[in-house]
Specification:
The complex is a heterodimer.
Chain A (H helix, E strand, L loop, with lengths): L1 H21 L3 H25 L3 H26 L3 H7 L4 H31 L7 H29 L4 H26 L7 H25 L6
Helix pairs in contact in A: 1-5, 2-3, 2-5, 3-5, 3-6, 3-7, 5-6, 5-8, 6-7, 6-8, 7-8
Chain B lengths: L22 E10 L2 E11 L4 E5 L6 H8 L6 E6 L2 E2 L5 H4 L2 E4 L11 H12 L4 H11 L15 H13 L5 E5 L7 H16 L3 E5 L3 H7 L2 E6 L2 E7 L5 H9 L1
Classes of the chains: A mainly alpha, B alpha/beta.
Chain lengths: ~230, ~250
């Protein structure tokens, strides 16, 4: 168990060190996410923004595109120079590799969200003070499910050598139930002033857990010996 | 001139016969999709042996190395270090070092960070000290804190070797380790591999240069269309006959 945790820490630290060294992901993705929020905000206009409907949806659009770029870039470092083969040769459980990538992705997405969300809130005049905890929990749980799928499919797409579009094409439709549920809950909470019910939250958590467990199990097959 | 016949294929290598076989493959095959990439491979490798695999591109050398590294599913019998390779081959894999076509390193990490990272994954005691010791050995101690992406091909290859040796593997698999290296780097690498052999490791090298292979190998095997068509002690071979076998 201790060895597994040590390996997990080593893998996550490596991903974060690479990101800190290259700043390839966060810098680029933050700019892109802010652009998405700004363009959509300008496109929707003040009336739509004032309705309280747009902000959660626009934020999710930004999170989705930012997430896909994150997933792709964190997996791409394994493809360069065949590093993945060395990783697979090491006595590390494939599940540990999956969770390490997932944690790295979540940390990077969280860093991006911390920058992008306040920008969107200011731009849309979205008052988070009514239920900040509900916002964080709803987005956080959904993000775990989204990152679980993203981590899986970035490895799958990575192993085929295809980049870019295909990852978004696969992840977006599969993430739809999570994103819709999360957006719906946030709109009801912030526009209608209804608290997030335990049932709604339980369904969201169940979705995220299903995505997490299935992705973890399938990841092992994707990274099975000979698949790289 | 030594001529090669069907009868002297797969004869017992004249390598060191003391110690248990590190690799024992019998009827080994690899199938990827509809294609049979390797078939009927018979191979026994003992400690302190340098085996060079020769063959044209696509002959199956890299696939064989991948199979021996347990990275590729195989058919037939494969024993590593006296144990049959099964689905959970992680423990056996931990005793293998591999140098691939690519350096298998993170180019944005320094040489030392790369080694420490892999050392940590393998549970190496004092990975920092071990990393510096290996960088010293491959002549890169003074560049330990430089990113791998700033290295020449030869230097990168030396870091790759250090990476493969971090966990003190008993079996070293090297896929075209000399390709792209200048003469000085080839000499250094050859000397390093020779040292490792004398330390007791078994080394399997996929290579293209027949004359070079004969000069530093204990045993030479020829691969053709997924089969091992010859496996003999290097001392029993001459370059011309070997060339004919490889180009046949």
């Amino acid at each position: 168990m201790m060895r597994t945790l040590r390996q997990l820490r080593t893998l996550v630290a490596k991903d974060l060190r690479l990101e800190a060294r290259t700043r390839q992901t966060v810098g680029l993705v933050v700019v892109m996410a802010i652009l998405i929020v700004t363009v959509l905000g300008l496109g929707l206009g003040p009336q739509q923004l004032a309705s309280g409907f747009a902000a959660p949806a626009v934020l999710w659009v930004a999170y989705l595109f930012a997430g896909v770029l994150c997933f792709e870039k964190t997996m791409a470092c394994e493809r360069h120079d065949g590093a993945l083969a060395a990783l697979l040769l090491a006595p590390v459980d494939r599940g540990v590799i999956y969770f390490a990538k997932l944690i790295s992705n979540l940390i990077l997405i969280a860093a991006i969200a911390i920058v992008v969300t306040p920008v969107a809130l200011v731009l849309f005049g979205f008052d988070l003070s009514a239920a900040p905890g509900a916002f964080v929990v709803t987005v956080g749980v959904s993000m775990i499910g989204f990152a679980a799928i993203g981590t899986l499919f970035s490895a799958a797409v990575n192993s085929t050598g295809v980049r870019g579009g295909p990852l978004a094409m696969v992840i977006f439709p599969i993430s739809l139930p999570l994103v819709l549920a999360s957006t719906h809950m946030l709109i009801k909470c912030f526009r209608d002033g209804e608290p997030i019910t335990q049932t709604a939250l339980a369904i969201l958590i169940a979705f995220a857990l299903i995505y997490l467990v299935v992705s973890w199990l399938v990841f092992e097959m994707i990274l099975a010996p000979g698949s790289e | 001139m030594t001529t090669l016949s069907v009868t002297d294929r797969f004869d017992e290598p004249a390598a060191v016969k003391t110690g248990a076989a590190m690799v024992c493959a019998s009827g080994l095959g690899v199938r990827l999709g509809d294609r049979q990439i390797l078939r009927d491979i018979e191979l026994t490798i003992r400690p302190r042996t340098m085996l060079v695999l020769l063959g044209a591109n696509g002959a199956g050398k890299s696939t064989l190395l991948g199979a021996l590294a347990t990275l590729t599913p195989v058919t037939g019998k494969l024993e590593l270090f006296g144990q049959t390779v099964n689905r959970d081959a992680a423990a056996l894999r931990a005793r293998i070092g591999m140098i691939g076509h690519q350096p298998m390193l993170y180019r944005d990490l320094t040489a030392r960070e790369n080694l420490v990272f892999f050392g940590d994954l393998y549970g190496v005691a004092q990975p920092q000290a071990r990393a510096m010791q290996l960088l010293q050995r491959v002549g890169l101690a003074d560049r330990a804190e430089d990113a791998v992406k700033t290295f020449s091909r030869g230097m990168t290859q030396r870091v790759a070797i250090a990476r493969a040796l971090m966990h003190e593997p008993e079996l070293l698999l090297a896929d075209e380790p000399f390709s792209g290296l200048d003469l000085a780097s080839i000499d250094k690498l050859e000397a390093l591999l020779d040292e490792l052999r004398h330390e007791g490791k078994a080394i399997i090298v996929a290579h293209h240069d027949i004359a070079h292979a004969l000069r530093f190998a204990d045993e030479v095997a020829v691969m053709r269309r997924g089969r091992m068509t010859m496996h003999k002690a290097a001392a029993q071979l001459d370059e011309q006959a070997l060339r004919q076998e490889v180009l046949a």
